[in-house]
Structures are given as structure tokens and as C-alpha cells.
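Researcher: We're teaching a course module on how sequence relates to structure. For the next exercise, students receive a sequence and then see the predicted structure as C-alpha cells, so they can try to spot secondary structure elements on their own. Here is the exercise chain.
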Amino acid sequence: MRFLRLALVFVLGTWGVMAVAQTPSAPVPPALYAAKKVFISNAGGDSGLFPHPFSGSPSRAYDAFYAGVKQLGRFDLVSDPTEADLVLEIQLTAPNGPTNANKQKGASDPLPMMRLVVWDRKTHFVLWALTESIDPANLQKTHDRNFDDAVAALVAELKNITSARNP
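Model: And here is the predicted structure for the students to work with:
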């Protein structure tokens, strides 16, 4: 009986993996890879994160993301949103966590995160949204490195979703 249960679990698990592997990718909005000009919008950063745990100011996420997108060389960065094909809205948040969280019961500290929302400038619809958590650290330089890594991950994912794809 035990062997039969194990065999059933294996077959169902294998079938589930095969179903996931055969699922085609959902379409990416064509406006993402057709865009030439972007406006980067600073949706702000929670001031409680500066100067500790991160060095700099609340505009650090905006400044770093702007530099990363510029370095991609993929887009023309414009200073007026009406000239853009896409608006990239970057925001740094520090979610509120539970008061007196009991970690023995599975509670965890909320992590600061960066959120990138990609808007179609013409229609004002959200085309894509990405969130990157910033890993915790004990040292200031590690906090700052983790911050930079989160920005780099958002820039890399933006590059990925805006690269030309075959229809």
C-alpha cells in the first residue's frame, strides 16, 4: 500500500512538472519592446530608510535606476513624459511589519523593496510591474551593496522584458 502511494505521488508530481514545462509563455505587450523613449518617474523613497540602513538620500533609488537605464543604451531618456513611449515609475518602500512579531510562529521582518511600474504613456495603462526585495544585512556596506544589487536586478529585468521578441 505504501509503495502504491509513493508511485501515485511520483506520477502526479511528474505530470505536474510536465504540465508546467509545456505551458507556453504569456505574451508580452508589444509596446514594451517597441518603445524608444522613456521617462523615469520618481515615485519616492521612504525617508525612514536613510541614512540607516542605507546611505544617501530618499532619491538614491531614482538616481541609481536612472543611471542603470542610461547605461543600458536601449532607450532615449526624455525629461518630459509627454515625449515618452513608456513611463518607468520607480519607488522604494519600507513596508510596515507586525508589532512584536513572534518569529517562533513564522513571522518575519518585512524587507524594504523597490517597485518598478511600467506605464504606457499614451493609454495610461500599467503594462508591467516588477518588485525587488532588498536583502537584510548587518554592516552598512553590505546594506548598500544589497541596495545596489536590487537596482541592478530591476534594470536587468527591464532589459529582459523590453528586448525584441519573436511574435
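Model: If you want an answer key for the exercise: The longest strand covers residues 37-45. Helices lie at 2-21, 30-34, 60-72, 140-162.
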